[in-house]
Amino acid sequence: MGNTGLYLALGVATVLFLVPFYLIVRNALSTDADITGESWRFFPTDLQWGNVKELFDDPSVPFAKALWNSTVVAVLHTLGTLLVCSLAGYGLARIPYAHANKVLYAVLFTLMVPAAVTFVPSYVLVSSLGWVSSLRGLIIPGLFSGFTAFLFRQYFLGFPKELEEAARVDGLGYWGAYWRIVVPNSLNFFAAISVITFISGWNAFLWPLVIGQDQSSWTVQVALSSYMTAQTINIHLIFMATAVSILPLVLVFVFLQRWLVQGVAQTGIKG
Amino acid sequence: MATTTPTPSAAKGPAPRGAAPVRRRPRGLGGSRGRALNFWLFTGPFLIGLIVFVYVPIGWSLWLSLHNAQGTVTPTEFVGLGNYADMLGDGDFVDSLVNFTIFAAIIVPITYALSLTLALLVHRIRFMKAFFRSVFFLPTACSFVVASLVWKMSLFNGLRYGMMNTVLGWFGIDSIAWLASPHPPWYWLVICSARLWLQCGFYMILFLAALQNIPRELYEAAAVDGAKPGWQTFRHITLPQLRATSVAVVLLLLIAAYQAFDEFYNILDEGRATWGRPPLVDLYLQALGANQDYGHASAGALILALLIALVTLVQGRFLGFGRGDEK
Amino acid sequence: MSNISRGRDWDRRGVLRAMGGVAALGGLAACGSNTGRSGGGGGSIKQMYHAYGEQGTQQAAKKFADAYGKAKVTIEWVPGEYESKLATTLLGSGAPDVFEYHPDLQLVRSRQIVPLDDIIADVKDDFLPEDITANSVDGKIYGIRMIDDPQFFFYRKSLFEKAGVKPPATFDELIDAAHKLTSGKVKGLYIGQNLKTISKPLVWSTGPHYLDADHRIAYHTDNLVETLTKARELYKSKSLLLGAPTEVWDPASFLQGLCAIQWCGIWAIPAIQKAFGDDFGIFPFPKSGAKGRQVVYNGGWSTYVSAKAKDVDAAKEFVKWLWIDQKKYQQEWALDYGFHIPARKSIAAGADKLKSGVAAEAVELFNTHGVFDDPYWTEGMFNILLDAVVNSVRDNKSPEAELDSADKKIERALKKLG
């Protein structure tokens, strides 16, 4: 395929991939009448920037607060997951222990089990710990991702052994080698996993819905759902809420995606 | 899951250079006891969490599945394998398992092919690489809820102001109510396009990373041997080099296909369409929701988990999952 | 307060929503945010509502709670997914003490709610007997009705005149009207996309309720088979609005002029009045076959006390205070934010808002054709029968065979609940 062909194919794919984003923005800045009108409008006749104000001024849904809550939770969720899962991944990958493989299979098994299996017991468990309506109830149960630990293991398998061994010989031990040598040399990969983890924290819905109690603790996804179930659906508000809810992630992506590719390139998921 | 070919240093045992020749034992971690201690030190916090927040609930579910547990999670009436028998004797649930095996067999190869194609295209170009990468990866930022919303309310809206219907209108074709009925099965188009849009970017990134790791020398050597660039090199060099990634991607896609819930639930009328109902939606309607039949729900969910494990295992044998690990 | 039956009937969208997406990323477990207080200690009561749509309702609920002197009452306001959240929270230790819901035998059988006979005894006669029956299991009253929300068809008078159509009294006339009113961009009829809502009046319009007085299957008649066959024809014709993005609890399709007739409820009256002035009317679901009857579905919400409440008696006392004693608040709740019929006869009698125009007609329909929920008919049974209806109407399957297979499953469920 010639270069022109390549770019042409990519161009077509780009248009297709961007159509849903275009629809979100177009609907977010239109009036309902524009959206449901008889003839299709590519762009709203008047950009309804007032919709932004309407979203944030709505007294029945504290959208700004929800954005803040989501930010706090997604950040803490990300940091916690990185810490716990990277340590586990390193242990599984690097410390020669007789039963390490059994532990690995126990971790992998959890990936096969649909979340539906564990949801109700998890809730009862967490509520009996008294963690309902608390940050720890929202964050801690989500930190133990078998998938993330597994990704870390694959990555650490490929980490140059020489570096660590030199460090250990210098008397650092596994622990010291991990913090002084392995982590500082793996920032790309940590960044990649952060992005993926942040998304999952941001987009989580059911757990925050059940654990969160009063409105001041709603996350963006919960707030979004309240627009969809309002008495009469305001199409423009739903799409404005959607646009605002994905904006932070889009920004994170655009700025961090370089690290993402580099980071993923270093996992075990590779050729 | 995923994986495999450990990197040279892992596969070949002690690295030949650097620290290896030094026979002096690193301080403080001598002996298998020290290693065991360190192993638990690193994995301990994670494993404790995994046991408390994943294994205990799984065990609890297993226990529930053996009881009559309607409206309670501390049941007393033991029914043995009765719930399992009920679920396997229930035509709808079994149908949904069969349907989703078919669904997986269709959506997995398509997603695989599309992600790989995108990756190959992006990998080949020199300019605007980052731009295209971003564009294809961007949908990953959206939740299934967001995608369902856009698809149902705007893109495949069954009315005249739906975008697809507007486009059809330009060609003089009547509006189609995409989701009204399974004849013809337009709903597959709606569901599959949403899933492809959401998923392809992520897998493209995996492939892209793998492509970057293929040593250039392989291609140079092939060129010297007279292989033509294009299909031949792709078939004999690129594809084999991507084997490990392919295994991982197929595995992730399979698991995701069987665990499908959101877009089916949201796009297909809150799960009320009786066709194209995934196992989890069926379980939700029958048991997990307001019906509160946790015994049957757990039994069904565990049957599904077993099926996923089985398919994963078969796929692994077939494509060679874990071969690298076993060394 | 929006659509009444939202919790039970129409709105479960997105449940377990996070799961698919999260699973796609390989099981990164769900996690989210909260900065809220921790559950109340002694002397506090947690009350749970689904998120009503009308402006001001949430503030009103809070106001009522704050006005209660004997305990600190906190409000939990649940958007979307009310039903599944309630089901889940009732199992754990963060469970609400007092909550609103619909009559359901399941809650009684699994001992999740307590009888309220003692607090309602004195004013029992001030409620409609049907509202009492709908909340009674084995002779005990488990719930106190808060509001009644009748559902019926809305139609555009001007379009009817133009097409020379009268409000239909039989199902055949309804189908006929749908055909006649369909023109170009306007479809004759909108009964919803998922049939969840319309399946109730559709079944009842053939004569029987779901179950008879002895809690045995009553819905399965030749008349229902025939009605489902006709409904399938209607569905295949071009006269039905299909593919609308919102279900029938939202009057949007009617308001946008996409259809001449739409099923909806009393809560939609203000919005429709605003859009069309006097150019609309209402009529009940027409009767089907010789043994049929006209039907208005009386939805609504009732309040219950959890058996797991920290202090059951304190919770009951609060319920008595708010939903029995405070008639002013009950009136405010039903009438000040939207359109609902107050459950108390004495309050409804004084409601000027409901005395004129279409609202008065709605009350009249409610009184003459209203059909109430049966507490012995559980969510599980409803789902089974709905599948049979959907298969017959939307998917071309044989109604007789579908109903036969539904019978078997429902028999099993009935046996299990005893």
TrEMBL record, chain B:
InterPro entries: ABC_transporter_permease (IPR051393), MetI-like (IPR000515), MetI-like_sf (IPR035906)
Membrane topology per record: Multi-pass membrane protein
Ranges of biased composition (kind: Low complexity): 8-21
Ranges that cross the membrane: 37-58, 97-122, 134-154, 186-211, 242-261, 294-314
Subcellular location: Cell membrane
UniProt keyword list: Cell membrane, Membrane, Transmembrane, Transmembrane helix, Transport
CDD domains: TM_PBP2
Domain of life: Bacteria
Residue span(s) of domain ABC transmembrane type-1: 97-315
Family, similarity comment: Belongs to the binding-protein-dependent transport system permease family.
UniProt-recorded name of the protein: Sugar ABC transporter permease
UniProtKB/TrEMBL annotation, chain C:
Pfam families per record: SBP_bac_8 (PF13416)
InterPro entries: Bact_solute-bd_prot1 (IPR050490), SBP (IPR006059)
Domain of life: Bacteria
Stored Gene3D superfamilies: Periplasmic binding protein-like II
Annotated transmembrane regions: none
Record-linked PANTHER family: ARABINOSE-BINDING PROTEIN-RELATED, DIACETYLCHITOBIOSE BINDING PROTEIN DASA
UniProt name for this protein: Sugar ABC transporter substrate-binding protein
